[in-house]
Amino acid sequence: MALAASCPSCGAPVVFKSAASIFAVCEYCQSTLVRHDQALEDIGKMAALAEDRSPLQLGTEGRYQGVHFALIGRIQLKYSQGLWNEWHLLFDDMRTGWLSEASGEYVLTFVQPVQEPLPPLDDLKVGQRFALASQPWTVSNIEQAECIAGQGELPFRVGAGYPVATVDLRNGANFATLDYSETPPLLFTGEAVEFKALQLSNLRTAMAVPEKTVEVRVFRCPSCGAPMSARSREILAVGCVSCGAVVNTADKNYQLLSKAQGNRAEQYMLRLPLGSQGRLEEKSVEVIGCLVRQTKSEGVTYCWREYLLAAETGSYRWLTEYNGHWNVVDVLSDVPKKSGAIEIGEVRYGGEVYRHYSTTQSATVVQVSGEFNWRVKLGDAVRVIDYVAPPLLLSVERSPQEQTWSRGRYIAAVDLAAAFNLKKPLPEPLGVFANQPNPWAETHRHACRLFWKLAGLLLLVQLLFVALGGGKLLLRQELLFFPYMAESTLQTREFEVRGRSNKLTVHNNTSLDNNWLGLELVLINKTTGMAWPVTRELAYYWGHDGGENWSEGRRNDEVVFLDIPAGTYYLTVDPDLAPEKPAQISDTLEVWRGGAGWSNFFLALVFLAIFPIFSHLRHAAFEARRWAESDHAPPVSGDSDSDD
What we know:
Radius of gyration: 40 Å
Structural class: mainly beta
Helix content: 10-25%
């Protein structure tokens, strides 16, 4: 039941919409009010909220799983890398929940009672997996934070300097937080949610934006004196474009987070100038910062750039670039289920199978330019594991405090230049990148599809010829071959061949059984005496070995005579039987005229196969170049030591 009262300090009306709310901040005088039944106690002034890019405000309404809710309170927390908001929600069914908002990522959770004891804070590590509330969880973040300000109605008493120790857990799209600021600790469970899916209304962008408590700050670099700026209190670090010094903007004296580097290295120069605006995937973005990271492997130094983009609804995106290869990257809230500390060969996510490509043991920040919403500094290092399913790249960054998954999509340099309306083209990419699309992939798929279509059509035509041009039986005769038929030649009956040019096929179907047979056949024209001799050998053996049947050879044979003129013909057959196994052998001899041959069909099939084979070789060569740069490079000759 709602409670209406007046602020003891300024007399302004204060309404508690939720019976669970015991704490409120007066909207007019910022007095901190504690609820005691029907009375309010003023316990002092609450610190002013730091201005941020959040589109949310008190009174914003939305829907979750079909139930309407409203934002009735907020706490703002500061941690080592920046700020985040926790919005207190009141649903129409009188449930309360929390909407966490950090860098454009939204997670909605509810408190969940548990009977089992929660693990001690000191026993948890990033990447650790354990079971809790009948679900497997992975520790994704461990943070010591501080509540710096509050607003609206809250279910507990807070004040500036209120410590908050939290551990974030992930299980695919499911999300949980262990809050160790309470005794015993509290468990909150829920899921990452899309901004649009909440159907939010009464946003700051839809109404007059509240007056900012902190204006854009302009100051000079404490190292070289160059002008610098921070667009809001949400920006906690700014890198000097002139000298490379990194400034802590949360400090009123603009203390250095890392010292100046002096002159910038040419290979670190920005490809996209700070302040560049463009549209990626139909969404407006602005380049506000750039990191240069570096790693060393086998004495070789590798560097790449990571551009921070300010996107819509207070969110952030990334553009990464290495040797002219670009990726649009988003931090994932719905992480892969197999996201523990153990490195695995492949990851399944979003219907794709990503193969492990490389592991960078230490990716170190060597240059900082522009604005960042966390306290980045030179020397910061993370472990990076990359998985690829071109054109997608799945990466996980790990530090002792945090594990973050992100997914990138390859974008061609020409498309990126068009997205940002760059006057000069971006440099051409060098080599093959991890998730660069294979330019032969579509060509190979098209060649294979075309091959199977044409092969099917060719088979239909061949079967049509076979059906329409079926052969005619000219002779069928049973022959018997006896042992020791020395110098004995058998002669078949005569048969008539009509037409100017004919193809004759002679079939021999024998009764061979673990034996062999040699045949000398001669096709003879009775009128002209022309002869076409041919020698054939047949063999067929079978048996049992180890309880299994086996066989080899064949009992049947076929001989084809081409371009046979019209006339009367007969065949002579001179058999050669195996002396080591004298046995009677029967043979059914048939002579057929015409019939479609299969040789042209197979020749055409081989010709058609040339194109997919060629495209496959080009596709495979590109993939070989891709994986040559990975942790799984194929061995090449000379890699192994010789024993000579």
